[in-house]
Amino acid sequence: MNNHFIVGVILVSIVVPLFSGCIDESIDESNGKPVVSILYPHDGADVFHLVMIHGICSDVNHDIKRVELQIDNDEWREVDGISPWSYEWDTFQFTDGNYTIQVRAWDGVHYSDMQSVSVFVHNPETVESDEHRWAVFIAASNFPKDNESKLGNGGLYLAEDMVAHFVEELHYPTSNIFLLFDDGWIRDDNGYGQRIKTLQERAHEYNITYGGATKDSVLSTLRYVIKQSNRYRDSEVFLWIFNHGYGDLNNSLTGGKLFSSSWVFLWDDALRDSELGDILGSLKSTKTCIIVDACFCGGFADKTILDLPTLFLFRSDIPQIGRIVISGTSKFRKGYASTLQGPVFSYLWFEGLQSGKADGYKAGFRDRGRLSILPLSKDEKVSVEEAFYYAHYQLRTDMGLREFRSMQPQMNDRYPYPGLFLSRREMVLGE
């Protein structure tokens, strides 16, 4: 995605301390061993879902080759980085109970003394009296090595704004909300710099699950949400994914996607539209909204351009009965994003939803969106569809957004049922 979308909004800078990498001076390193420590989680902590274990290490005599981690008596696993180092622990399949985390460092000559903490895994269960709503927000923005391709922390900031709305206004339980960003770390210089703090350790208002947007974490989270939501007939599921897509920027006609699937990149791998379709195939919820915002991502909604369907052999099968699938761009067009405010389409969609501005917007010609002149069209509620039409209309008519008109967002609306007349009822989240 291109990152030169500018909106006149001043964002408060987030200032967080850098790891000093210091080791307690009382520790004796004269024996030549490296020294390693665990900074998170703390000994005796309660943890759940995804846990970003991390720490620091040092060696006065040698360069540290690797840091390894063990949970209980399982195999030793190499972690990511040296100082700081980190390892994301997926506890979805672990039973509740006490677990010991051990870590050691290797400098090519000596292993360090092992350091350990004991934690208690307690994954919250949805009970019958709770609201049966789940939301997953995924943004992997800064994985490229060259800074020109980075998308900054805007996707994280937009996701956190959406989280606040889903909790406060739509009454989603915090235990059922997941925000997966980059590798689980926030970086300074708006994502262009070095790791400064894990998402789990940042000060945040809601006790949701933070984690990395690695493919393993994304798939584990989606499988967990599917398993939990399938227990209830009235389950509501919201999924939002943002990052670069894959296509030929030099092909102005189709982006090279006429005979190809749509892809969205995660932190360490790509996710194809049909792959997501396979994962969501077992999801039983008949009130599901899926938004994918990336270049050339219309294939996730089984759309090419101008509301035209994808060729049969390249369909994702994500659209199903009871689902609305939205792509921020058509399959043939690139998208745009702000490094501070996230992707253009999602920003506008959410603006229309949370502000109420989208109330009364209808499809118009080719789903381009228009404000209805009928007084009964406004009911003081904003549906998923109205927010889509509002965003589409703004892209088409706002002179400040004229640079982004080519995106052509797409929607495949099969809620509550597919068909011209059977999908007339609109999806209002949180009801």
Largest sheet: 7 strands, mixed
Structural class by helix and strand composition: alpha/beta
CATH architecture assignment name of the largest domain? 3-Layer(aba) Sandwich
Which residue ranges are poorly predicted, with pLDDT under 50 across at least 5 consecutive positions?
3-30
User: Level of helix content?
Assistant: 10-25%
Note down, in words, how this protein is organized.
There is one protein chain. Strand 22 and strand 23 (370-371) form a beta hairpin. Helix 4 packs across helix 5. It is built from five helices and 24 strands. By secondary structure, it is an alpha/beta fold. The protein has a seven-stranded mixed sheet, with helices on both faces. The protein folds into two domains: 35-121, Immunoglobulin-like (Sandwich); 133-413, Rossmann fold. The protein starts with 34 loop residues before the first strand and ends in an 18-residue tail after the last strand.
Q: Can you give keywords for this protein?
A:
431 residues, alpha/beta, Immunoglobulin-like, Rossmann fold, 7-stranded mixed beta sheet, 5-stranded mixed beta sheet, 24 strands, 25% strand, globular, disordered N terminus
Give a quick precis of the structure.
With 431 residues, this protein is α/β, with parallel strands linked by helices.
SSE blueprint and pairings:
Layout lengths: L34 E6 L5 E2 L2 E9 L7 E6 L5 E2 L1 E2 L3 E6 L6 E10 L8 E7 L11 E7 L14 H15 L8 E5 L3 E3 L7 E4 L10 E3 L3 H15 L6 E7 L20 E3 L4 E3 H7 L8 E6 L29 E5 L9 E2 L3 E2 H12 L5 E2 L7 E2 L12 H14 L12 E4 L18
Parallel strand pairs: 2-9, 10-11, 10-15, 11-14, 15-18, 18-19
Antiparallel strand pairs: 1-3, 3-7, 4-5, 4-8, 6-7, 8-9, 12-13, 16-17, 19-24, 20-21, 22-23
Helix pairs in contact: 4-5
